[in-house]
Design goal:
Blueprint (H helix, E strand, L loop, with lengths): L1 H11 L7 H62 L49 H15 L7 H8 L6 H12 L3 E2 L7 E2 L1 H5 L10 H11 L2 H13 L4 E2 H8 L6 H12 L3 E2 L5 E4 L9
């Protein structure tokens, strides 16, 4: 009975629609709630992205540590057969010698492991110089055609198609130096010997600063190349770190952007002239070292 009385009383009360002020307040509260939820989601995604980048960098360091070991094994094999020689072949057997056929056995199918592509080491048909070494010689020869006889090793690495400073390219430089095809005239620079010049051939690319930039961009991952292009366009002026992030399409101060800047600096392509400023290095511009 009490419930029926309350229901009857509620039906007798006049119903009033919310006024404009109440509606506006409700809309504002809803928008603020959505904005807070959006910011929280962006923060979570940013943290997740940074965690992924850190993990990728960690794995890259481990892979980099394995590269010199792999290259050293490759060098030992080359020493066993001779740097420009051919692998030994089995001795010829007399044609009238009977060879017993071994019993057949079941062999498990080999694992189909996916290997990371490595630079070709196919020997040249004339001098027996493996492809990676020849590309480095050719890159130095390209610099000679434009009057730079002692180019920076970083620039040479990128023209040859390699990232500077890695264990792979450093192993190749060391091997070429030990075999008398290149030498180090000064710190950070490299030059051809007479024999190295004889075995080199400049690549078919224009002798321009733009061609050097393109060679660098082709080696760099997309995000690093996008940031470097902004610095190249501003050279010789430096760029404010915040403005650089915005112009390259990144949020200033985030872990992602800072990681990319750190990688460009470790590759020797950029520098920090003053606090908060970033500049492309002169080695990216022909005639500036």
């Amino acid at each position: 009975a009490k419930v029926r009385n309350l229901q009857a009383e509620l039906r007798r009360r006049p119903t009033t629609a919310p006024n404009e002020a109440q509606l506006a307040a409700a809309r504002l509260a809803g928008e603020q709630h959505l904005a807070r939820a959006h910011r929280a989601t962006v923060r979570e995604l940013s943290r997740a992205n940074e965690a992924v980048i850190r993990e990728v960098e960690r794995l890259r360091k481990h892979l980099g540590a394995l590269t010199p070991i792999s290259d050293s094994l490759d060098q030992l094999a080359r020493k066993a057969y001779g740097f420009a020689g051919t692998e030994p072949t089995a001795p010829n057997r007399p044609s009238n010698t009977a060879v017993a056929k071994p019993p057949e056995r079941i062999v498990a199918a080999p694992r189909q492991d996916v290997e990371k592509p490595r630079p070709s080491t196919q020997r040249d048909e004339h001098d027996g110089l493996p492809g990676p070494y020849r590309r480095i010689l050719n890159a130095i020869a390209w610099f000679e055609t434009i009057g730079i006889d002692e180019p920076n090793r970083i620039a040479v690495s990128f023209v040859a198609g390699y990232k500077a400073g890695t264990g792979t390219i450093n192993t190749y430089f060391g091997r070429l130096n030990s075999t008398g095809l290149i030498h180090y005239p000064s710190s950070g620079c490299v030059a051809l010997t007479d024999e190295g010049r004889r075995q080199s051939q400049p690549p078919d690319m224009p002798a321009t600063t733009e061609a050097l930039h393109q060679a660098v961009y082709e080696v760099l991952p997309g995000p690093l190349g996008r940031i470097l292009k902004e610095l190249v366009a501003a050279y010789p002026e430096s760029v404010d770190r915040t403005n650089l992030a915005l112009s390259a399409g990144y949020s200033p101060g985030t872990g992602t952007f800072n990681t990319y800047i750190g990688r460009l600096r470790s590759l020797g392509l950029i520098g920090y002239p003053t606090t908060g400023q970033i500049v492309a290095r002169p080695i990216l511009f022909l005639g500036n070292g």
